[in-house]
Amino acid sequence: MNYEVFVRDFAKRTQENLELLKQIQKEKPNYKVYEVTQLINSLLGLLIFPKESFYLKIPKTSLETLRKEGWPIPQSSKPDLEAKNLKDLLRRMRNATAHCLVEAVDSKHDETISGLRLWSGRNGSTRWEIVFTTEELEIFTQKFIALIDNQLGWSV
Fold first, then answer.
1. Residue 87's CB: how many other CB atoms inside 10 A?
2. Minimal CA–CA distance to 50: which of 136, 144, 142?
3. 135 in a structural domain
4. Distance CA 51, CA 60 (A)
5. How many domains does one find in the chain?
6. Contact 44/94 with Cβ under 8 angstroms?
7. Considering the entire predicted model, what is its pTM?
8. Residues 6+ apart with CB under 8 A from 108
9. Would you tell me the crossing angle of helices 35-54 and 134-146 to the nearest 10 degrees?
10. pLDDT in tens, 20-42
11. N or C: which end of the chain has fewer CB within 10 A?
């Protein structure tokens, strides 16, 4: 099956891949599945492709509105430098991901990854930073995929 509308179809296929990985992990708990790695790979593609192709169509929905709509929006460690809206947050997340300013947060109870830290900075100082739990990042990814698929009507 070809990509008709690249960003939209990439987003849908990303969602299907993430769901399949979760299903495999449930059915075969001893099988090595790196769901957080797949989530990071998915995030990279979902942040890069829309930013490069459709940046002007990404809405400037306020973070407060997004929170009310069920989007998990972590507070920045530097509240005065928090993202202004969805477009700004996606830009910051895209830059952090593209420049490998991402760090796994380990669970305190076992050796699993409990979340991801994304940040930006210069000369060794952190200017902006957020931490998503893996569950929050998965929900954020699902919400963003739905936005790409349903609300923006992105087309060639």
1. 17
2. 144
3. yes
4. 13
5. 1
6. no
7. 0.83
8. 114
9. 40
10. 988 988 898 888 878 888 888 88
11. N
